[in-house]
Design brief:
There is one protein chain. By secondary structure, the chain is of the alpha+beta class. It has a six-stranded mixed sheet. The longest helix is centred in the middle third of the chain and has 16 residues. The protein is globular and about 45 Å long.
Length: about 130
C-alpha cells in the first residue's frame, strides 16, 4: 500500500507538471476541498478536480510564467502531510518576479486526498502584480 507521504510527493516530484497533475487527479477524492489562503490572488475554497483546475491551475498557467513550488521538505503524521518550501514566478502583466515562503497541508484517507490548505506569504505575490 502506498503511503500518504508518497501520494503527496507524487503530486510535486513527477518528471513533468503534467505527470504531477495526473497524480493529483488520480488521488484526489471527488469532493476534495482546496483552500487557497486568504489574501492570496486566488483566495477561496474550491471543490473537486474540475473546479480546482479552472479556478487555480488555469490562472496559474496562463497569468504567470514559470510559476512553481520548490519543495524543501515534508512532515507526515497520521492522515496529514505538510509540504513546505518556496513559490517562484513572474506575473505576465507586469513582468515582475517574486518568491514567497509557503506550506501546504494535505489531509488523506484510504489513499485519497480529502483536502488541501495553503499557507503563504502573499505580500511578495501581490507586490509582483502591481
Amino acid at each position: 500500500m502506498i503511503s500518504n507521504l508518497d501520494i503527496i510527493k507524487s503530486t510535486y516530484e513527477g518528471d513533468t507538471a503534467a505527470e504531477n497533475g495526473k497524480n493529483l487527479q488520480k488521488y484526489l477524492s471527488n469532493n476534495a476541498t482546496w483552500k487557497e489562503a486568504d489574501g492570496f490572488p486566488l483566495a477561496g475554497v474550491y471543490i473537486g478536480f474540475e473546479e480546482i483546475s479552472k479556478k487555480v491551475f488555469k490562472p496559474l498557467s496562463t497569468e504567470w510564467t514559470d510559476y512553481r513550488f520548490a519543495v524543501d521538505g515534508y512532515v507526515a503524521a497520521d492522515n496529514r502531510v505538510f509540504a513546505y518550501g518556496t513559490y517562484y514566478g513572474r506575473y505576465n502583466e507586469t513582468g515582475r518576479t517574486f518568491h514567497a515562503r509557503v506550506a501546504h497541508l494535505w489531509t488523506l484517507e484510504n489513499n485519497k486526498i480529502l483536502s488541501f490548505e495553503q499557507f503563504v506569504d502573499s505580500v511578495p505575490v501581490i507586490a509582483s502584480m502591481k
